[in-house]
Amino acid sequence: MQAPDLPTWAAIIVGLLVFGGAVITLLGAAGLLRLHNFYERVHAPTLGATSGMAAILAGSALCFSVLQTRPVIHEILIALFVTLTTPVTLMLLARAAIYRDRSEANAGVPPDPESGHGQPER
């Protein structure tokens, strides 16, 4: 089982998927430099990592499925775990930051939907 055994049509598709996934992930990482505050920055790498991971894993699944002449499902499990854990991590980080910023009365905090403003009630 060697990569030279991969048919040309599959190698082209795998290459495009892996390259596309890498570009999407890079754009998500570039969002860290482009965006201004934590609340804006937290979305770009999360979305980039999830979308990029999906394309890279699709390419990997295609490559190994063609080479082994049977469906390979390891990538589906990886995608499931990454897709479930990335948004949960985003929510936990954002909630911790909002709690900290509201308790310290920092500026630029997203508004509290219950109180109608970003500052904690006293």
Question: Can you characterise this structure?
Answer:
Helix 1 runs antiparallel to helix 3 and helix 3 packs antiparallel against helix 4. By secondary structure, the chain is an all-alpha fold. The protein has one domain. The radius of gyration is 20 Å and the shape is elongated. The protein is built from 4 helices and no strands. Helices cover 71% and strands 0% of the residues.
Question: Outline of this structure?
Answer:
The chain has 122 residues and is mostly helical.
Topology:
Blueprint lengths: L7 H27 L3 H4 L1 H26 L5 H30 L19
How many strand segments? 0
- Secondary structure category: mainly alpha
Q: DSSP strand (E) fraction?
A: under 5%
Major sheet characteristics: none
Helix segment tally: 4
Order of helices and strands: HHHH
Rg estimate, integer Å: 20 Å
Broad shape: elongated
In the residues, how many domains can be counted? 1
Average pLDDT metric: 83
The N- and C-terminal alpha carbons lie at a distance of: 67 Å
Query: Helical residue percent?
Result: over 70%
- Unreliable stretches covering 5 or more consecutive residues: none
Descriptive terms for the model:
122 residues; elongated; mainly alpha; 0% strand; 4 helices
